[in-house]
Amino acid sequence: MKKRLLSFFAFALTALMVNAQSWTMPEIKLTTDQVPEKAYIYNVESSKFLTKGGAWGNHASVKSDPAVAFLYEIQAQEGENTYKLHCSAAANNGMLGRQSAEDVYTDWKAQTDWGLTWEFNAVTGGFQVRTAASDTNWGANKYTEDDPVNYGVYILGYNPERDDLTNGSGDPMGTHDGIYMVDPDAADGYGCTWVFMTEDDYASYSTQMSLYNKLLEALEVGYTEAELDPYAALLTSTDAEAIKAAVAEVDNKILNYAYEHATPENPFDVTAKIANPTFDGAKDSEPAGWIDEFSNMKIQNNKAYHIWDDELGVESDEYGFNNFSQNWAKDGSITASNIYQVLSELPQGTYILQADAIATGVNADTPVSGCQLYAESGAARYGIDIDKNGWTAPGS
User: Fewest Cβ atoms closer than 10 Å to its Cβ: which of 25, 51, 107, 313?
Assistant: First the structure.
């Protein structure tokens, strides 16, 4: 049976980075003395937020970036300080549930044989999160009192040795980074203190960080701190509308300055003009921001493909991106596909369009033709063929 696919992994419209500066980064405001009804959950020892893992989907994980943190409804149950934690994120809708000593998941729904109830007990600097002693829904055929590693009351903790896990080939797993169910009698050395970030505090911090990052971009293209200080004065403001207006103004400054000074030797990265260039989203969904003309370039999110080594002319050991847009066919040919978006407000000039893409049969020697990366401007069309090795020739 022949199988073929066309996959686009990530796009870039060609490079910004960061200068040292004297502004203070916005601070994360945390609630340490009460359990809110809804909040982001933060591990004190690791300075990371509770979220999901990557490659295997919905294992619980901890990450530094609040932008990927999960917002939890903290639902009070019978019993003192006892709660269920419900996440309504589209792709991970469900309860935080413990399957075993090592496996904590973010998306349990109707299951009754997992530990879904948690106790929040006040400790110095926050709360200790434990599987509730009253929660007996463990499944008689799965765990018994004779299996103490997987049975009974355990503490949700952070284990730095579990950060950045890899599989046997050394590839990042991103499954349950840092998360560990800790035996209460052996909890020393694990980060078992958890606190909260409320929705309002999260919204304020996120808005402030958007301005902070935009100011760093402006420094990189050539503006001085003195020129940007009037905007930096808003980094501690809670006026979301004023901050958003400042972000828009600084963004215009960046674009105007960068376009005026861009050269072939010093190009300016405008990938941000592309909506969702990395195809983020739920598996098998339409990629947000893109026009999928035939509705057959859905999002996939596994590590199925190795990156091609142009110099050696072979597959490298390095995996490509987690998310990509793909048309896959199990019969002899791929149906017509066309995924694109229209960019506006780009000044006249010369641009480099880059993407990671392949068109291949499951047998790497199977030729595939008729697939292109292209750009159109008015009546002009620029394209380059894609095959099993990616590009057949360099092009812009």
Answer: 313
**CB contact at 8 A, 50 and 62:** yes
User: pTM value?
Assistant: 0.61
CB 60 within 8 A of CB 92: no
- Within 10 angstroms of residue 250's Cβ, the number of other Cβ atoms is 20
Side chain identity at residue 108, one-letter code: W
The mean predicted confidence, pLDDT, of the chain is 77
d(C-alpha 71, C-alpha 59), whole Å: 16
* Higher per-residue confidence, 119 vs 138: 119
Average pLDDT over residues 201-218: 93
Q: What is the DSSP letter of 41?
A: E
Residue 322, judged by CB atoms within 10 A of its CB (0-12, 13-18, 19+), counts as: middle
**Sequence-separated (6 or more) residues with CB below 8 Å from residue 383:** 372, 373, 374, 375
Please enumerate in sequence order all residues whose Cβ is within 8 A of that of 319, keeping only pairs 6 or more positions apart, or say none.
171, 303, 305, 306, 307
**CA 384 – CA 340 distance, rounded (Å):** 15
One-letter amino acid of 211: L
- Please give the pLDDT value at position 108: 76
Looking only at the bridges linking them, the beta strands covering 298-300 and 291-292 are: unpaired
Average pLDDT over residues 243-259: 90
List, in sequence order, every residue forming a beta bridge with 130; answer none if it has no partner. 119, 155
d(CA 54, CA 280): 12
Distance of CA 389 to the CA centre of its chain: 27
CA-CA distance, 214 to 246, in Å (whole number)? 9
Alpha-carbon dihedral sign for residues 43, 45, 47, 53: negative
Over the stretch 319-357, which tens digit does the pLDDT of each residue have? 566 678 888 777 666 778 899 999 887 777 888 888 888
- Give strand ranges (E) for 136-290: 155-158, 179-182, 194-197
Q: For residue 308, how far is the Cα from the chain centroid?
A: 24
Q: Tell me which residue of 303, 55, 40 sits closest to 177, measured CA to CA.
A: 55
Whole-angstrom distance, CA of residue 325 vs CA of residue 76: 41
Strand intervals (E) in 14-125: 38-43, 48-52, 60-63, 71-76, 82-87, 94-98, 104-108, 118-123
